[in-house]
Amino acid sequence: MKNILYLFLALTSYAISAQTTAEAYLNSAVSKFYLDDMKGAIVDYTKAITIDPSYVEAYRKRGLAKEELKDFSGAIADYTKAIEIDPNYAFALHDRGITKGKLKDFSGAIADYSRAIKIDPNYATAYFNRGVSKFYLGDMIGACKDARKAQALGDDASILINKVCN
Length: 166
Hints:
With 166 residues, the protein is mainly alpha-helical. It is built from 9 helices and no strands.
């Protein structure tokens, strides 16, 4: 019984240590990201993921860094992995939608924004960006509706409202 307890404590200690180390790499990566060192940030996000392959936030933030470097397919892959780990991760869905929009996949972007909104009905930015995608697809009524909803939730959607709702 005593040996089992020691084994449990050792495994628990290792798990806490690994999580702390992964978090340290994430924090380092975030600092590098804000210092505009995207390549360095990606290295540290990758180290965090290597330590904790289920670290959903590390995948999402690595996707953001890849997107800054115009590696859109790499960014989408990271957002998709984050969503596979946590299907209710609205931020990753939203970010993937933004990247799809940059690749002119407005229908795909709308699908991602819609899933994010289903998870978080008060996600104002997702409404705004879905409205922008609808605008690019020629759906002015849908774009106006989403812009007004974003505005009601506190996002400044006036530019889109002025463009599509008048």
